[in-house]
């Protein structure tokens, strides 16, 4: 009955391959895999220079620490005609929720452009278009391509050039702690979950520093 | 998958050249072939499988050049090819998972699994088909085809991108391709195996 042994081995090898490819039968897409992995192992953001709306250059990590609020981060580019607009209006709703619930001293929103063409004037125009309250919602753009690639890689954002000078990219709400760690990722369909996770993180942070 | 048990018409080196051509194309054009999801799934991966399949064909044809031939072993680990076909089916299912396609571009382990594992699967597939009969072939082919058609329909239906590295449009084309594969593959098989199928039906 050697062939039964072979059958069991083939089943084990094939199932093992499927196990390996699906992160232990838990995920079918790379997007789900990155969300699950970040939830299990938060990732520290490296030192990254970003352009701010006022034209200045600041270090993202230092800015997070100095500001002290939990940030909900997403990535976009100002010329985007599709996904970013949806993401933008959802972020605007998040801003309204933050204002309505008086969370602006604990939670803020950051949108970072990955398009090298986006400078301060583009960011200011976009912020105005989105009705952003600059105390709650800040817009930034990467200052250096190498650092941009490192941060996008860390966040698990894949940017694919598409026809007509557009980009396709995965979008989500990224909850980032003041000490510069990416803690959780939520779907664009779940802004409420992102907000409550950020609230819980802010509350935990306050508990730590009475 | 459409080839029958009889030896092919090409000499052994002909199959060898075909195997090397498939492997060479899949490797040399890998930048271009992995730029689109549809080419990655429906051209590069099949080329890698075909490379293994033709290599086995070459090996088999080369071994049987001597008309006396070697006696068939009294037993086989791959009886009726069932263990081999099971393995190939599971690995085939694995390469329909969007995460596998994304990871093959970013994770060297998955890339190694693709470039080494798929030719091995092709080899196992050919060797297993050689040992199996029409009922077993129909079972595994049928399974593969409904899986391919369903995955293709899911790809076409998804309003969101399943692969971070590929565009939505391209995902739709992959879906159409998988559905086409589910129609073309059994049609080719039926044409190639018309005689044994006919014999089986008229038994």
From TrEMBL, chain B:
<feature type="transmembrane region" description="Helical">
    <location>
        <begin position="176"/>
        <end position="194"/>
    </location>
</feature>
<feature type="transmembrane region" description="Helical">
    <location>
        <begin position="110"/>
        <end position="127"/>
    </location>
</feature>
<protein>
    <submittedName>
        <fullName>Uncharacterized protein</fullName>
    </submittedName>
</protein>
<keyword id="KW-1133">Transmembrane helix</keyword>
<feature type="transmembrane region" description="Helical">
    <location>
        <begin position="134"/>
        <end position="156"/>
    </location>
</feature>
<keyword id="KW-0472">Membrane</keyword>
<keyword id="KW-0812">Transmembrane</keyword>
<feature type="transmembrane region" description="Helical">
    <location>
        <begin position="80"/>
        <end position="98"/>
    </location>
</feature>
<feature type="transmembrane region" description="Helical">
    <location>
        <begin position="39"/>
        <end position="59"/>
    </location>
</feature>
<feature type="transmembrane region" description="Helical">
    <location>
        <begin position="12"/>
        <end position="33"/>
    </location>
</feature>
């Amino acid at each position: 009955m050697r062939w039964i042994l072979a059958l069991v081995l083939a089943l084990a090898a094939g199932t093992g391959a499927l196990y390996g490819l699906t992160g232990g039968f838990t995920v079918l897409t790379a997007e789900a895999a990155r969300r699950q992995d970040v939830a299990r192992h938060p990732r520290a953001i490296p030192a990254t220079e970003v352009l701010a709306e006022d034209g200045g250059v600041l270090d993202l990590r230092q800015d997070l620490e100095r500001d002290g609020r939990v940030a909900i981060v997403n990535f976009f580019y100002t010329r985007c005609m599709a996904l970013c607009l949806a993401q933008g209006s959802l972020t605007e709703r998040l801003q309204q929720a933050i204002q309505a619930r008086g969370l602006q001293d604990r939670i803020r929103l950051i949108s970072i452009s990955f398009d090298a063409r986006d400078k301060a004037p583009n960011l200011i125009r976009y912020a105005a278009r989105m009705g952003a309250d600059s105390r709650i919602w800040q817009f930034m753009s990467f200052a250096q391509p190498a650092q941009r690639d490192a941060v996008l890689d860390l966040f698990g954002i894949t940017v694919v050039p598409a026809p007509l000078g557009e980009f396709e990219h995965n979008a989500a709400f990224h909850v980032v702690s003041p000490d510069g760690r990416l803690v959780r990722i939520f779907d664009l369909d779940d802004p409420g979950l992102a907000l409550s996770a950020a609230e819980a993180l802010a509350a935990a942070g306050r508990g730590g520093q009475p | 998958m459409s080839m029958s048990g009889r030896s092919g018409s090409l000499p052994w080196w002909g199959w060898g050249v075909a195997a090397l051509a498939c492997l060479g194309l899949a490797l040399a054009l890998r930048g271009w072939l992995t730029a689109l999801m549809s080419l990655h799934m429906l051209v590069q991966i099949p080329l890698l499988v075909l490379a293994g399949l033709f290599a086995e064909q070459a090996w088999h044809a080369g071994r049987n050049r001597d008309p006396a031939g070697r006696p068939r072993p009294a037993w086989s680990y791959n009886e009726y090819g069932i263990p081999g076909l099971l393995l190939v089916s599971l690995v085939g299912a694995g390469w329909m998972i969007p995460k596998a396609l994304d990871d093959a571009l970013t994770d060297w382990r998955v890339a190694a699994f693709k470039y080494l594992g798929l030719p091995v699967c092709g080899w196992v597939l050919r060797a297993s088909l050689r040992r199996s009969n029409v009922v077993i072939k129909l079972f595994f082919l049928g399974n593969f085809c409904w899986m391919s058609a369903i995955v293709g329909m899911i790809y076409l239906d998804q309003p969101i991108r399943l692969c971070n590295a590929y565009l939505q449009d391209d995902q739709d084309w992959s879906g159409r391709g998988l559905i086409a594969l589910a129609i073309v593959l059994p049609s080719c098989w039926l044409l190639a195996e018309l005689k044994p199928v006919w014999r089986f039906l008229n038994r």
